[in-house]
């Protein structure tokens, strides 16, 4: 009688330590945008996005070899819009609305795929904000 023996190697990974980096709030300063022109809606959909200032962008959890411009959209878009002083269904004009803010985000998720996609994070607090203003069309 023939018996097969299989050896399985198991590596234990602490999920708590792997998740801690994304669950810890990140404080960022920069500009927010919600673009409503047709091209932006086709590419991004109804996403509110944030572009950290250069000093703040160092806090974005990315590998050093990731040379992409550090920006992301809020995974909680409707709530983020409300916290930033507007609603996604407001009549915002032809191209959208934007402003500057200091914010706290959590659950940052880096998009590592190819093609259309972007990093996302949950907006958890607005620390400072300028009034939203209409965006010019590109």
Task: Please explain how this structure is put together.
The protein is of the alpha+beta class and 138 residues long. The chain has one domain. 20% of the residues lie in helices and 32% in strands. The protein is built from 4 helices and 6 strands; from the N terminus they run αβαβαβαβββ. A 5-stranded mixed barrel has the order 1-2-3-5-4. The N terminus is likely disordered.
- Count of DSSP helices? 4
Q: Which structural category do the helix and sheet elements fall into?
A: alpha+beta
Largest sheet: 5 strands, mixed, barrel
Residue share in helix: 10-25%
Q: What is the number of domains? A: 1
Strand adjacency order, main sheet: 1-2-3-5-4
- Enumerate the spans where pLDDT stays under 50 for 5 or more consecutive residues: 1-21
- Mean of residue pLDDT? 81
Shape: globular
> Number of DSSP strands?
6
Helix and strand succession? HEHEHEHEEE
| Head-to-tail CA distance between termini | 75 Å
- Which range does the strand content fall in? 25-35%
Radius of gyration: 19 Å
Short account of what is shown:
With 138 residues, the chain is an alpha+beta fold. It has 4 helices and 6 strands, in the order H-E-H-E-H-E-H-E-E-E.
């Amino acid at each position: 009688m023939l018996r097969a023996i299989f050896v399985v190697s198991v590596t234990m990974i602490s999920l708590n330590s792997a998740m801690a980096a994304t669950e810890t709030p990140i404080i960022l300063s920069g500009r927010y945008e919600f673009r409503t022109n047709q091209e932006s809606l086709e590419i991004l959909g109804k996403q509110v996005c944030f572009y950290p200032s250069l000093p703040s962008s160092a806090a974005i959890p990315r590998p050093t070899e990731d040379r992409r411009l550090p920006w992301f959209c809020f995974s909680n878009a409707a709530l983020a819009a409300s916290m930033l002083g507007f609603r996604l269904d407001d009549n915002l004009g032809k191209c959208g609305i934007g402003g500057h803010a200091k914010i706290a985000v959590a659950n940052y998720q880096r998009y590592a795929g190819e093609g259309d996609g972007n990093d996302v994070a949950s907006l958890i607090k607005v620390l400072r904000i300028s009034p939203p203003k209409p965006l010019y069309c590109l």
